[in-house]
Write a structure and sequence with these properties.
The chain has three helices and no strands. By secondary structure, the protein is mainly alpha-helical. Helix 2 runs antiparallel to helix 3.
Amino acid sequence: MKPFELREFSTDELKQKLHDLREELMSIRFKQQAETPKPSDIKKLKREIARVKTIMREKEIIGDRK
C-alpha cells in the first residue's frame, strides 16, 4: 500500500492495519519447516509495517502542533 493511501486512514484503522501486518509476519515466520518462507515476503511485510508506523508518527506530530 502506498503512503498516500495510508494517510487517508484514521488512527484506529492504522492501528488495526499494524496489528494485522504483525500477525501476518508472525505466521510467516512460524510456518512449518518444510514450507520455508521467501525472504522477500518477510522484507515486504517489514517495510509495510515501517510505513504504517511512520504515518502514525506523522499524525501524532501533526496532532501535537494543533
